[in-house]
Batch of 2 targets.
Target 1
Amino acid sequence: MNAAPRRARASPPQPSPRGGEGALQTASHSAALASTTHGGGPEEQAAVAHRAVLTSPPCGGGRAGEAPHVGIAGAGLAGRLLAWRLLRAGLRVSLFDAHARTDRSSAGPTAAAMLSPTAELAAADAQIHALGVASLDIWPQWLGELHAQTGREVYFRREGTLVVAHAADAGALDHYAALLRAHLPAVTPAAHQLTALLPEGRAPDTPIAPAGLAATPFSTAILPPAQPWVRQTEAVMQPVDGAHIAALEPLLAGRFARGLLLPQEGQLANDQLYAALAAALDAGLATCGGVWHEGLAIEQVEAAVLVDAHGTRHGFDLAVDCRGVGSRGELPGLHGVRGEVLTVFAPGISLRRPVRLIHPRYALYVAPRPGSQFIVGATELDSEDAGPPTLRSTLELGSALYSLHPEFGEARVLRLAAALRPALPDHRPMAGRGADGVWRINGLFRHGYLIAPALVRQMAADIVAAFAVERVTPPDAPVLDASGAASHIQPPTPTQPQAA
Ligand SMILES: Cc1cc2nc3c(=O)[nH]c(=O)nc-3n(C[C@H](O)[C@H](O)[C@H](O)COP(=O)(O)OP(=O)(O)OC[C@H]3O[C@@H](n4cnc5c(N)ncnc54)[C@H](O)[C@@H]3O)c2cc1C
């Protein structure tokens, strides 16, 4: 059902009796989302909503097609994850992407997919670290669910990251270690500690978005609850000597005298993740309803409407913008940060974990992948040029690999790729509902795989909760259609949201 790219409709979508893409249905749900007309105070409304949630059937339980319908622009990392979680919660979802599902030109399929909350502290703040720590605990659970749903394994390892430097670069290694130590929160940030995490001048309720766009503040609920164990520096960063390095990675025996082990880190294979999510989405769309429009760009996102490149308006109950750098022009300050990666095939060479090579001019890493493949990344260039990798970057990536071990000299080059990371001016993510009514996840920058699960889980829960409130609208309440005229239409049938 989702294979062929879809052509735009010749005329605007009509209201669907099952609440499909259509303006009338959208207006009803949106109006209800904005303000419920049910009588009683907030507590009574919440109780009614709660009862509705508890007693309603899940999608596919004989009422498929009647659940609220969410339109998502962008089927990249954030879009796929969110669509999957919403389908699992019983909502209907339609996805739109400018490219086919197998396209590899955007950031998601290009990334190395390292999950490095500690190493990233050299370039990111404690908020990213906290989201990363939370996400590292979510990934295994979600990958297990994906496997149960699709039968597909996604390569996921959590054996830490080894950081090494050649003897001549020992000073750079010391500097890197000092940087991490300075930025590392002494204990796991708990919700009540959020204030302490925020950079100077940023109040706890400051929206994590450019002014005026996102009304949703950085929710303390996004942060992980306090853990029973304390993440002290030693637990996340251990100095290692040559013998320890050799024990961890026999390939590197005798090559490096000092390094750091960041034990909690991990990585996954994003090509496998994308394929597994696609399979899960196909299954979810078949059960709950919705369409994956491939090769259909969205030019504009409104609160409940996606406007495609042909000017066709697709109406939903709620719209989410997950277009990454494709949202440039609509999000002030959003820009692309160019990154390049090299993938090689090196049979007979083995690494158990990603290795970061510290160098005074660049910090690159080599991450093992299934099938004797290694991904070397990543450059970071302040450029929006999405063209092929440059010779300079190719030399840097290749040199890093070769200097890790000369045996990599015989590795076969499988792929050289470049893509743009979506970044906001402060290099922090935004996730939530904007003052314009549009839900957005963007600005994941160089941390998409690291932090997306925590952000997506929160947004999926918020969206499900928004519809739970919506459902207290009395069945016969007049609602306004897109033109403002009152009409009576069937309210959405309650679904049974599950834990998103
Ligand atoms: C070289 C490189 C290495 C990286 N390494 C890591 C790493 O090791 N660890 C990590 O955590 N992160 C890494 N990242 C970052 C990570 O890839 C991004 O943060 C993440 O992919 C952003 O997810 P997204 O869904 O917001 O955007 P994307 O993944 O870019 O997805 C956006 C989607 O929107 C679609 N789209 C765009 N415009 C439109 C439109 N007009 N209409 C419809 N669809 C549209 C695109 O086709 C795409 O499918 C790396 C990125 C790069 C480039």
Target 2
Amino acid sequence: MGRTNTSSKPKIKIKHLGKYNRGADDFYVSEESTSYGNKKPYSVFYENQEPLVRLLKGDTIEILNQSRENSVDMIFADPPYFLSNGGISCHAGKMVSVNKGKWDKSKGVEENHKFNLEWLKACQRVLKPNGTIWVSGTQHVIFSVGYAMQELGFKILNDITWEKPNPPPNLSCRYFTHSTETVLWAGKNAKSKHLFNYALMREFNGGKQMKTVWKFTSPSSNEKTFGKHPTQKPVELLQRIIQASTKMGDLVLDPFCGSSTTGVASILLDRKYVGIDFEEDYLDLSVKRLKKTVAEKESRLFPTTSIASIKASE
Ligand SMILES: C[S@@+](CC[C@H](N)C(=O)[O-])C[C@H]1O[C@@H](n2cnc3c(N)ncnc32)[C@H](O)[C@@H]1O
């Protein structure tokens, strides 16, 4: 499916950022203030105007540091967990390597923390004053992320435990079965007045206040029709996050978008979406998933029968 030769021309036409609609609320990457000489550190990999969906290809820190300040309502980040270090796991009853890719290799505690500080700082700059950020992680990365958030002055709002009801067994039998991930939710800084759709969350929880333990299964096979990303998140988890902390029309950014689960959920919920990743194969997968979601949503909104009846009444 993916292209391994990165020098070959992508199938999807690359547009230049100069074509962006630079409205007051828009997120854009400045071409004027580039600190990289003539070399553009990014390209627009895919763009759809209605609903607004953009995929940017490049290093997320470089792109974010060139982007407009205070322009994003909410960020969901699923960064490298730094766990691809030769370990083993179990998939479909078989022993498999846990390695996800080069991007997920640990560079050591200090370098990993430096990276977390850098990308979180870049995210904080583009968040609107009352915007919030959600970051997922396991024990391999989440303590560093939480500490970096404290160092940068984010206002930590909640630590959500995502419980997986059917985790793979622990093959070594020397540990408890890993069955959770943590998702930290934080406001831009101490002053920010974050949005929380409290009543909707209570309604989802049968009229009781929603707690911080959420149960969702791993992505189902219909979320992988075009192939899968090695660390793909379930759409339901992203829908919950988006519904809890944004309103219709808000701009959602995913700085490590992978297969764009965040984008799929954003489209379904009428939010704008910008995703960033440096791996072309993952962006290809994203485009397929995003196009399918847009098409399915349009066919639900404008079923052929109603289009036929509109034509008949003209
Ligand atoms: C944990 S995965 C995200 C998976 C995603 N949540 C999904 O549901 O498909 C992290 C992604 O970040 C990308 N990535 C890692 N470091 C990056 C960087 N510095 N700049 C851009 N993308 C990066 C990887 O290519 C990978 O696809």
